[in-house]
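Hey all, sorry for the wall of text incoming. These are the two entities for the joint prediction.
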Amino acid sequence: MASRRSALVVSYAVLALGAVLVVGPFVWELLTSFKTYPDSVRVPPSLLPATWDASGYTRVFELVPLGRQFVNTALMAAGRTVAQLVICSLAAFAFARLEFPGRRFFFGLFLVVLMVPAQLFVIPQFLIVQRLGWLNSMAALIVPGMFSAFGTFMLRQFFAGLPRELDEAAEIDGCGPLRRYWRVLLPLSRPGLLALAVLTLLWSWNDLLWPLIVTTDPESTTLSAGLATLSGQHNVEYPTVMAGALLATAPVIVIFAILQKQIIEGIATTGSKG
Amino acid sequence: MTTTAQPLTRPRGESAPPGGRRSLRRTTEARWGLLMIAPLGLGLAVFYLWPMLQTFYFGFTAWGPFGDSTWTGLDNYLRLLADEKVWAALRNSLAYTGLVLLGVPLALVFAVLLDQRKLRGRGLFRTLYFLPVVTMPSAVALLWQYLYNGDFGLVNQALATVGVAGPSWASDPGTAMFALAAVGVWMGFGYNLVILMAGLQTVPRQLYEAAAIDGAGTVRQFVSVTVPMISPTVFFVSVITIINGLQMFDLVYLMMPPGSPALPATQTVVHLFYQKSFVQNDPGYGAAIAVLLFAVIGLLTVLQFRLQRRWVHRG
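and here's what came out:
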């Protein structure tokens, strides 16, 4: 019994050490954001700011148009998410419940998109967006991200897991496919839809490569690409940079805090990551 | 009101012989099916499937300054084979992937610790460990650049307390790859952990009880019960880690500014792809690099599925 208790103590110690290594950097980031510049590069460092100074949080808006980029990022994430919920769930319903010619063929074809690395799409995607005159626009940031093979696959699995009797009963009552989709399956699929929404929101918010490619103007890019311009500058104003990093991350952390159960379980069950 | 259970609404023009009705319903269903997949199909065709074919084609072309392309056959691929930068990038990507793969056993240890019945605060630990997974890579990179700073970064300040003078981790070519991979492990740890924890929960408790009755201690139980039962999950996590590792771009782009002495030691395949395609305006060559990456990922994934028969337990 004693050995079992000591095993538990060791477990706590290891887990706590891990937690410090994971959370410590965030705490340091937060504390640094309230320091003055000389304070942030002091050797040896002080844990708490010598004087609490929040000017980094205003200064960062002078370096990058963070407010504008915040709006762009939110619109991009929301646009992609809403579109995916509609487009993917429609297709997922058809694949899970309807009989139509070419069903297997199309499903397989769409899965190809899931199985190849994203770099195979990027160059032609850029050329299409350029030809459409969409560079530096919201359309470039949103439209290609509206269609997701992953989202369709995930929702199809979710729909397939719901008992067929439900929509058969509706069918006998004379409901057509659209009503079965809208009235029967969608209301039952809230957990699946929420998981897809949260994952899409998260990936869109954090996406870097695509905004880098289709935007050059700081006013029309996203937080992710905007923050990148702060990195590697000479004589970096660390408190300001840390403030910017925290501001850009804050909305995601808040969403995570509220929906952490759904997010973690969504990822654990689908095993997905952007 | 009629007593027969007839549909309330009937599609137009239906005249009710049973067989006919069924076939009519089938054609409406087929029409709806195609209609419902149409938006997705169109979008995927325009923005994904057609671009994919184009990339394969672009790999055989060279581009002029005004977007005009000419067929050059295998030129890009021959150039690729002779390009020391490509080989270096491939080596770097593989090294990075190998290093972040070390995070998998680490996550497994933590998952097993968290799976103990008597343990409290499981949810809290899981949430904390997951934090870096949802954090924007750009923000993570800024934070770690600061922590890795040679003069006043927290890492070296901590090392100084035990009398070690650390290098400039992220800009020293000798340590940059390790620094990068450490951040990669830090970011991916929570993800691996959550999936492994879900896998552990599916291991039947009776197996542990039976093993305990047979006199197996904690370590023996881990080796003989946990490891084989969890091996399919470990396999899955490894496959995902390798695929993501080979596609590493963000951290290199963010932490290795142009001209950094450590860039040659850390430039990954996707970073090189980005440079060639979008900075140096050589999309033909960029496409060839993308195809090379596709081949490498495909090859390694097939190889893993072959090798898994040796170590993955299928109950």
